[in-house]
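Page 42, continued from yesterday. The earlier attempt failed because a stray header line got pasted into the input along with the sequence. Redoing it now with the clean sequence only.
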Amino acid sequence: MKKKLILESGEVFHGVGFGAPVETQGEVVFNTSMTGYQELISDPSYCGQIVCMTYPLIGNYGINRDDYEAIEPALKGLIVKEICDLPSNFRSQMDLDEFFKRKNLGGISGIDTRRLTRLIRSKGVVKGKIVDYKTSEQDVIEALKADVFPTNQIETVSTKNNYASPGRGLKVVLVDFGAKLGILRELTKRDCDVIVVSQNINAEEIKLMNPDGIMLSNGPGDPQDVPQALEMIRSVIGEIPIFGICMGHQLLSLACGAKTFKLKFGHRGGNHPVLDVRTNKVSITSQNHGYAVDRESLKDTELEETHIALNDRTNEGVRHKRYPCFSVQYHPEASPGPEDANYLFDEFIDMMKKFKSKKEVY
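This time it went through. Structure tokens are written below.
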């Protein structure tokens, strides 16, 4: 099944298709993870994107029942150097090609992923389309240049109905902007009584639930596309402890008066070093985001910077100076990736307990 990847910038990559025989287009990004492709494929934060894997062999341990981060994948397609036809792992239920066929997803293999990654690093993320090899390249390029991708990615992946994951401990409202199951796992592991709610919930609805804390989840797209979430956050800051992750970090920062901007090619991988400026310790983190908080804009807010990315010195975390709320740009739940930052969930638990007992004044 000969296919080609065509970019709006004019470059064309020839390869072999896998998965369903469908054409697909999206924003082409790259991920540097060596493992964890199943979690990556099912991560809602990749909604609308075609992901290029920089590691040369993908699919060598198959697809299993345990490593999903969402019930249905939201990404548009996958680009790999080589796809493994014969995975070897005791948990494997099917290979990557079969999984893509069942989910009606398309991918392309056999292309120079190193060249594509260098191109993205040089020019920035770019729109692209995986098509049949006979398709007119110029027609696709012109269509990609004229096309405007939708801005409702969060609405697309967020739950439409609230649901509960019962526990006997602290009650946490998890606002689903495209939440990974890894976040839910970490909260339930700590016996939290979790209520997962839609991205368009308002502050009054949350207050009626009388939670001990609010978790703002990860999610795809531009944080400025969900202004209703900013209003909700402003209405609960100081009244309910808040912990934000990735998209949640950007939304909390915007709600407090900071600004965000789009990165040239984003941070996507499982090996990003982050410095905690309070302790001067470095954690190796899992990341997946295309936007970042403007460090300079934090000076005009009540937020203080807590974490910095060592690769490009962008902001990776903040904490409110007066109220019980903090957030990080990376993924402390990993899935996939290192678990260096897992302790942040324990900090969230401690913050909720202190606020609840009124032992600490914010």
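Notes: The longest strand covers residues 260-276.
Reminder to self: strip header lines before submitting.
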